[in-house]
């Protein structure tokens, strides 16, 4: 018996030795701190005290006595730098961001010729690649007043030769392909438009080289997927970029089973340096990842599958957004309805029945009305506990805006879309139909919860670009003077809430992220300037100096 007790004591001692040492507490002093408290009020503070578990112990006003530290605790003098809670992108595409950072990016092209030159350079530098892939092109930047044309397969052939090429439009709702890609996909003049998609054709009826919405899948099936190694590098790049611009969280809109497995691997290995609120890419992805119910939070609140992403229509730039009236610049079409009424209601109902939050893409006013009608039918059954969301809500009939509040829906909007799309929107809709378009302030005034994001890689992931756009409704070059339709501009406080507490609420994370109240995760950023004291036109110039997640530093601009 004594020997048995001795053995138990030895085993207990070995177990204690095997446990990791408790982490130290951290004290940040001399900060110019801002945060929103539990009531939504903006609060100032000078000291942030973080527990060994990575959660906030206290925020103290400037001049308050410092908490007593112990041996091993860490003390950092912020030297007056502005400190904000870590920012959360309410709508982005995590792997899409990483791939865009690593593949051909045509976002800077201002003409077909510039795009062709960039494509040719990329093809020469990646001669071993089986396909030329990338995207970011925007034909609206290639002409005056949004009246530019789509590029053609012949123009892409001239830059790529016989190697297949597939290049996504900036919004991801159109694909520019060359003749080799069309051949690989078996697309000919006899190929019919799929439901919810269009194969644009030339005067002779042949495919022109542009595929819209569901027609993109015809080529995607033929194109090899990125290998595991490339996907891993893309995720590394996305997480690193997020930290560099102050994003400690992102709502990933369209997580595939492969995406989920890769993010899980990063979590298992301790490499997941952001909080990812995942929305499955449709019913099939949900069934492959978690068919019974949403997952719990994993890796200390760094990953959860919480919802399902659906598509009601396409995008305005590719004339796939579904409108109540024909396009002003193409009266033969009203865009694309991607789901009939019955299927949409069934899918939304099934998602809520399983406990999933719905996030449904709706850009055109017809698509938004259809979505509102679908939610009106299922609300009596499932109530408002899911905080269902409409992604983009970009062009909404003014009469429909109050219905969002009545149906307890969250509007998920991306401010950088306003300055990027303003000229194109005026051309697509005409000036008389812009009332209710990009109407951020009007939604808030109607008591609709508003979460803000970037839609990265459609727009840059930098949240300060979005905050600038929300406040000024201008491009970063300052156009138009005085801002575009400024009645729908947000205040700086409202814009910051959209990327912090409102984003947390939309992702069912209120009190845990988006703020620095006691008990919340110590996710925060240090900035090179104070957004509340600089001209609003300079908000986009703010640089993140440090990013911290759960009380640990994950990024330093100048180590």
Detail the topology: elements first, then pairings.
Layout: H1 2-18, E1 26-29, E2 32-36, E3 42-45, E4 47-50, E5 56-60, E6 74-77, E7 82-85, E8 87-92, H2 94-102, E9 104-105, H3 112-125, E10 132-137, H4 153-160, E11 165-169, E12 174-177, H5 179-185, E13 197-201, E14 207-213, H6 216-220, H7 228-244, E15 247-255, H8 257-268, E16 275-281, H9 282-289, E17 303-311, H10 341-353, E18 357-362, H11 365-382, E19 389-392, H12 401-406, E20 410-413, H13 417-429, H14 440-445, E21 450-452, H15 463-472, H16 492-498, H17 501-506, E22 524-527, E23 544-549, E24 552-556
Parallel strand pairs: 1-6, 2-7, 8-15, 9-10, 10-11, 15-16, 16-17, 17-18, 18-19, 19-20, 20-21
Antiparallel strand pairs: 1-4, 2-3, 4-5, 7-22, 11-12, 12-14, 13-14, 22-23, 23-24
Report what the structure shows.
- 31% of the residues lie in helices and 22% in strands.
- A hairpin with a 5-residue loop joins strand 2 (32-36) and strand 3.
- The longest helix is centred in the last third of the chain and has 18 residues, at 365-382.
- Strands 8-15-16-17-18-19-20-21 form an 8-stranded parallel sheet. A 6-stranded mixed sheet has the order 3-2-7-22-23-24, covered by helices on one side. Strands 9-10-11-12-14-13 form a 6-stranded mixed sheet, with helices on both faces.
